[in-house]
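Notes, Module 5: Reading structure tokens.

Key idea: the token line is not a picture. It is a compressed description, and you learn to read it the same way you learned to read a sequence, by spotting repeated patterns. We will look at two proteins. The first is printed below with its tokens.
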Amino acid sequence: MKITNGTDIIEINRIKQNIEKYGDKFLKRIFTKKEIEYCEKRKNSKYQSYAVRFAAKEATYKALSEYINFKYYWNDFEVINEKNGKPVIKLNFEINNLKSLEVSLSHCKTYAIANVIAIFQTKDE
């Protein structure tokens, strides 16, 4: 088994400023339709929700970077929530031997942080 990790932290205000400046162009370039719908429902915490998803996408890339040898897009990584609220990373591509992706998200008034752990099955297992 091989385990890789990616962590990212972002100022929520940076995401808010980009959304306010570029609107749908920014949102559609970075986020999937499901992510936008989820964040927009959050009303008072929508910018935190967008920022933490952005951080999760960055952290996912960091955890998988040595396995991604093609041009990817922000929408190739999607953060969704299971019925119990647990966040999950969905990829719209496959990576050989990727057994599991685990994600932890958190945010406060000014920062959002994400940690992603990728677990790979190795040949000797």
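Here is the second protein, with the sequence above and the tokens below, as before.
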Amino acid sequence: MTRYLLDTNIASCIIKGNSPAVDRRLVKVPMPQLAISTVTEGELRFGAARLPHAARLHAMIEDFFLRVAILPWDSDAARQYGQLRATLEREGQPMGNLDAMIAAHTLAVNAVLVTNDHAFARIKKLKIEDWTKAPRQ
């Protein structure tokens, strides 16, 4: 069974319901296969905190958290992060720390990262799917 770790941008698409392509793909994947990192949870909570009067958005985010597994950042993810960040810096291709943490978490749990952020493509071992695009035939 493939596990999918949703990046913050895809989680946001799901919460807001603003991507028909993501919605079409989402209905084909059983909920137990979907998860987010606690890093993504933090990013979503930060986004909501920046809009304190957006009660509807806050409710939508909390509802999303009830429906998707939230995987804790752990020592395996930290180990992957250390290696990944060192490799990217050695190759002269550093990335934002939160993105690197999400990528490392994905590697640690042997999942597929669902994202439309092309920065992740430089991580050779990372399996990526972009649900905002139509699947290749």
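Summary for the second protein:
- The first helix runs from residue 8 to 16.
- The chain has six helices and five strands.
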